[in-house]
Design a protein that fits this description.
Glucose Permease (Domain IIA); three-stranded antiparallel sheet; 3 helices; alpha+beta; 246 residues; 2 domains; elongated
Length: 246
């Protein structure tokens, strides 16, 4: 990946065909590291400033209880919009998680509106306590982006994939593999943010958007993809490998 900083970490890769501990995995920083100790996504600053200003007004009016509540809300908003740097595996064929959260679906599906024919599907549910910045699963070129308005059901439910408001990004890799990742709004989420456009070249592990206040990411991969996660697993965007292209 261009613009990456490659490093080696003292961990071993869990690659098909290798025993645990057989090789040293290499990672990269897909983007320059942030200069701040507590990075925050830029879209969060207006909410943080508005909450801090309101808290200041309450304090000046000596409304102690409201000021304390406002301070707690301000800290929570800053915590929600945190945007830590992540290292990304450079292992051949490794597909990384686009989101932080818990795996709620991992396995084969026979049909989907986001992939022709049978495919492997991985769904990640993000609670309000997870980092909500989303990252690219694998290198490629964006073929198209399809936004669909919809409902705001609990994002952990299976039917959220097809009923909720969503934004699907279809990517073609340099080896001709097609995959898709879908940002899905949740029960509380009301804003899907996606900074990439059709025709753009994207790189594994780089930030591309976020969903505010609880949501879900679905990834649809070719059927021959070897999945590396199971239902109930916890994953981190960019760092966790959810599967390997064969």
């Amino acid at each position: 990946m261009s613009g990456c900083y490659e490093i080696s970490l003292g961990v071993t890769a869990n690659l098909p065909g290798y025993s645990q501990g057989a090789i040293m995995d290499k990672f990269s920083l897909p983007e320059p590291p942030c200069r701040f100790a507590f990075p925050i996504a830029s879209v969060g600053y207006p909410l943080i400033f508005a909450s801090a200003f309101t808290t200041g007004v309450f304090a000046l009016l000596q409304l102690r209880a409201l000021a304390l509540l406002g301070l707690a809300v301000t800290f929570f908003i800053a915590y929600f919009f945190r945007d830590p740097d992540r290292v990304v595996s450079v292992a051949e064929g490794a597909v990384v998680s686009p989101a932080d959260g818990r795996i709620v679906i991992s396995g084969k599906v026979d049909q989907s509106p986001f992939h022709d024919g049978p495919c492997q599907k991985v769904s990640i549910f993000m609670s309000v306590f997870n980092v909500h910045v989303n990252r690219i699963p694998y290198n490629g070129q964006v073929e198209r982006i399809a936004y669909h308005p919809g409902k705001f059901l609990n994002a952990s439910l299976d039917k959220a994939s097809e009923n909720n408001e969503r934004n699907a990004v279809f990517v073609m890799t340099d080896k001709g593999r097609r995959y898709c990742f879908v940002q899905i709004a949740g029960l509380i989420a009301r804003r899907i943010i996606c900074h990439i456009q059709a025709g753009e070249t994207v790189h594994r592990g780089r930030r591309f958007g976020m969903i505010c206040f609880g949501s879900r990411l679905d990834v649809y991969l070719p059927i021959e993809t070897a999945l590396n996660v199971a239902v109930g697993d916890r994953v981190q965007a960019g760092t966790s490998i959810i599967g390997y292209f064969r």
